[in-house]
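User: quick one
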Amino acid sequence: MNAREKEQYLREYHVFKGQGKPFFPYTVFKDGTMATLTLVVIIAAAILFGAELGPKADPTTTTYTPRPEWYFFFLFELLRVVKPPALVFMATVGIPTICLVLLIILPFIDRNPERNPLKRPIATLTGITVIAAMAYLTIEGAIAGSPTEIEMKVAKQYEPGRAVAASSGCLGCHKIGDNGNAGPGPPLTKVGARLPKQAIARTLINPTPPMPSFSTLRQRSPKEFNELVNFLSSLR
Amino acid sequence: MKLLPGPLRRRRPAEPDGRPAAVPGDGDLRRGHDALVREREKEAERQRRREAALEVPISVAGWLDERTGLGPFMRGLLYRKVPPSNWFYTLGSATLFAFLSQAVTGVFLAMYYRPSATEAYTSVQHITNDVFLGQLVRGMHKWGATVMMVLIFLHLGRTFFFGAYKYPRELNWIIGVVLLVLTMVMGLTGYLLPFDQRSFWATVVAVNLNSSGPIIGPYLADFLRGGAEFGATTISRFYAIHMLLVPGLMAALIGAHLYLVVKLGVTAPPWMKAEKARELAKEEI
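Assistant: Done. Structure below.
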């Protein structure tokens, strides 16, 4: 906006303001109505849905379902959508940071003086696209399960390892056969062919973020840890 | 009068103030006159007191104004004109109200919550099962977060589509985006506090995600955890961030946000521009 457009806006706004009504009581009434409605919704949700409390946190188990609050689902799902390991960094930090920076500097990108949404189609369409994308990612994130079952045929000696893997929440981020989610972690269906046993064990103990370390499992129960490694290396 | 039972109805005129009414009759006229005068004096006294009572709020306001000089400011705040608006314009104040609701329910939860790895879970159990209305307040805090998140996104959408971030309100947009981020930080830090399996492991993953960030990522993750691993100090860190650091920042930024709203005024709906331009054009002809 140049100086003339600024001046014009301020003059116009002065006219609009002159046409308006006093803040008290008109705006206060509207805001008060909305505040009451907000409180009613909060109390109703609290009574109807309550707040659940799951089993106590146990850092020594690796049985967990890493589910964030629903308003982080879109970030969570972004991790799943981005598959190549080299780009995971973009999903975890890159894209959210870029979006946030764009959001902050929006007033300096869009310097068109027009304010009517129908007369600035690029801004309006961009906004609608972003909302649609976030809604899509949120819904996808919401319906993605947190499975703790691995349904596949394995040789008898790998059965205990399969149980450990299933209860360790690997499927939250990895695909094993037809089970689990495709990402953020790489598929483990053929991990045994890709990595030797030692490398699998090393990765479990010292993984790349965001994967949690399984070193506590090794300390607590070396047997279960070895079963898990044996099961994973049997996947070829 | 008909609503009163019989005995009361008969007694009322006889003793209005606990004494038998003066009955005019032989030798009693003098006394009757005195009673009437006393009655009038009392009535005048009552009238004076009513007027004095009405003066109280005015004189309190005057007393405060004399000492603070807030009178013109309050008048400007309350009676400033607001351009014609619609219900979309209530989303911001509704978000503020949700924040206040979170603050109040949060204070009550803080009275019973104990931020340590050993006690956190049992104290939340205690709030849920034993404390009077504890379950309701905890539910309100949890769902208040969701409601606030929805409202803040709707408010953001309204501001975006109405072009309300443009001159002269750019700075207020930036403050608003920072408030959105801080609200999400509140959601993230608050999620750990019940300390059940779900919240614990979700937070482990979230902090690990942080550590994958460039340069400051690992340091931020170490700061949040209070070390290289999730430990005894992690939960008290999250608690301090959740109930002191971020709410304090948010309160200050909300103050700045509201100051700018009052100073710059609320935008008019963007479609008013065309109508107004046409009206002005007509007037000029």
